[in-house]
Amino acid sequence: MPQGPGNAVARHLLPTPPRRLGIAVSGGSDSVALLHLLYDFAQTYGTQLQVVSVDHGLRAEAAQESAFVATLCAGLGLPHETVHWTGWDRQGNLQNEARQARYRLIAAWARARDIETVALGHTLDDQAETVLMRLARGAGVDGLSAMSPRRTSGGITWLRPLLDVSRLDLRNILKRRGVTWCDDPSNEDPHFDRVKVRQALAVLEPLGINAEALGQVAFNMSRARDALRWQAFLTARSMAKIERGAVRMNWRGYVTLPDEIARRLLVGAMGWISGSPYPPRRKSVLGLIEALKQGVSATADGCQVSRKSDALWVYREYDPVRDMAGSIGDIWDRRWRLIGEAGSVPLHIAALGPEGLKQLPEWRGLGVPRGVLLSTPAVWNGTNLVAAPLAGFQNGWHARPEFDDEAFFAAVLSH
């Protein structure tokens, strides 16, 4: 297939083009070029395109840029909508907060229109800048893999078909077509880290450290990341078991693993149990593993990690669920639904905790750590324990997990 931006787009959408496709367009050259390239694609393959712009409410020019995109879309016969961010509390890093808000708003817009895939206009230049920024933070393999051309988050598949295409090439396409775009003045503001990195790249260019080279680094690291993920997945399959909502692994096998595979197994287990979208920092996880080697239990990311005999256990920490209560039928702690006959007695769901465990004198016969049971859901009538299915006291109730065992292995593969 001949090379070029148009074919780069097609490679990411074929052989099965989506029936509907959302496009995020800010009015800048990158997203405007993506809009035109996808319009060409849609004319051939019949994909329905819808366009969204985000007005963060931070610049007076933003409304004009959204109006520019609306006019552009009207000329192409495409539906367009502007969504607005009004929730910034002036706390935290502005660019990071705006980025997260942008994804939330676009995802909500797409779900409301039954759009499963949204295309973004990130380019090779963006990829290079991201690699350099993460390099400055001491990122590992995953961090230096930078942006992926396809990922799923918030129920939406996010597609970046232009990561191998430079901004200059895209602007040349627009010039040849006689299409204009908007320049965001914040892209030249040296107060922002990304702008500083962009300026640094211009200085590094004579050394061969340019967008192409850093893009190749990202590609190489993504291959290494995928290999590590796959090895961690295979290792989890061979040594990890799910028991009462906790992950149990053979300690002797675990402690002989390479540090990176051991870290990935632990991160995958904690992410699956806590539901946190972001993994704990590498340094903290490696420190946790070292503590385990000394026989010391530790907590991280809402999880408890401990050793019992020859087993390593990863389970829900009790403190985050200590005061969590729910009604019968609710999903408790994002993970469990208790099913049974409620009758006319007022019941609620809460953690088993130490008080519940006192009412189960035979719990030690289960062969699991006390902490595993403390954080499991139980049915209560006031302070009286009615059922604790995961602790062996069913009394006509059972606990149905919202995420099955396979979700754990998938978590290892994706972290």
UniProtKB/TrEMBL annotation:
**Limits of the tRNA(Ile)-lysidine/2-thiocytidine synthase N-terminal domain:** 22-199
The reaction(s) this protein catalyses? cytidine(34) in tRNA(Ile2) + L-lysine + ATP = lysidine(34) in tRNA(Ile2) + AMP + diphosphate + H(+)
- What's the EC number here? 6.3.4.19
Q: Which residues bind ATP?
A: S26, G27, G28, S29, D30, S31
According to its UniProt record, this protein's enzyme class is ligase
- Summary of the function given for this chain in its UniProt record: Ligates lysine onto the cytidine present at position 34 of the AUA codon-specific tRNA(Ile) that contains the anticodon CAU, in an ATP-dependent manner. Cytidine is converted to lysidine, thus changing the amino acid specificity of the tRNA from methionine to isoleucine.
What is the protein name given in its UniProt record? tRNA(Ile)-lysidine synthase
Q: Identify the species of origin.
A: Roseobacter fucihabitans
